[in-house]
Design brief:
Keywords: Cell membrane, Membrane, Signal, Transmembrane, Transmembrane helix. With 208 residues, this protein is mostly helical. It contains six helices and two strands, in the order H-H-H-H-E-E-H-H. The longest helix is centred in the last third of the chain and has 39 residues.
């Protein structure tokens, strides 16, 4: 296939997905969001697998990538519902940290325009070494930043799924046509040259 085809588009989409996943992984690490970290890690591995399959003409790898995109879309829909508190979910729960810590998204304290203030709690018994942290002035609430991240992931994944199905169908058609014209015949020249060789052998031993 030429360069300006579905294959090249899928390579571009996989590369874009890889960069977006790496960017998201960095901020999830900063926020100690362990469930998204594991999901991003799996996503990065399978996107690399899909990219390799596209470059090396391996349709089976692309099929695995296409199946994963459906799972990835479902995961990001869950993340959107989590931050928008749909279906009884709460963005303040410790679900994404596996109840290991009470950390929230990194964007909750470092979003655009956010000012982080710490107030000492020395006057309260038992909390002398603690401080109260408040965040004010955020231009955009952190949950909407997370929703935009997930929405972008869903968009790329859906387009990638469509192109993955298209590329697999093209690869399959090319393999079938190659088989039809004898591309995998191990002895094509033997069958062509068999008869002339026998005739030459008979002519050599004809009586004078």
């Amino acid at each position: 296939m030429g360069c300006c085809t579905g294959r090249c588009t899928l390579i571009f989409l996989c590369t874009l997905q890889l960069l977006a996943a790496l960017e998201r992984q960095v901020f999830d690490f900063l926020g100690y969001q362990w469930a998204p970290i594991l999901a991003n890690f799996l996503h990065i591995i399978i996107v690399i697998l899909g990219l390799f399959g596209t470059i090396q003409y391996r349709p089976r790898y692309i099929v695995v990538y296409a199946i994963w995109t459906a799972v990835w879309v479902t995961w990001n829909i869950f993340i959107i519902c989590f931050y928008l508190e749909v279906g009884g979910l709460s963005k303040d729960s410790e679900l994404l940290t596996f109840n290991i810590s009470r950390h929230q998204s990194w964007w909750s304290e470092n979003g655009p325009g956010c000012v982080r203030k710490e107030a000492s709690m020395s006057g309260i018994k038992g909390l002398d070494n603690h401080s109260y942290i408040s965040v004010i002035g955020c231009a955009l609430e952190y949950r909407y930043i997370e929703v935009m991240h997930s929405s972008f992931q869903i968009l790329i994944a859906l387009v990638g799924f469509v192109y993955a199905c298209y590329v697999v169908s093209v690869f399959t058609e090319e393999e079938d046509s190659f088989d039809f014209i004898g591309g995998f015949d191990p002895f094509p020249l033997y069958h062509v040259n068999e008869k002339p060789t026998n005739l030459l052998f008979k002519q050599t031993y004809l009586p004078a």
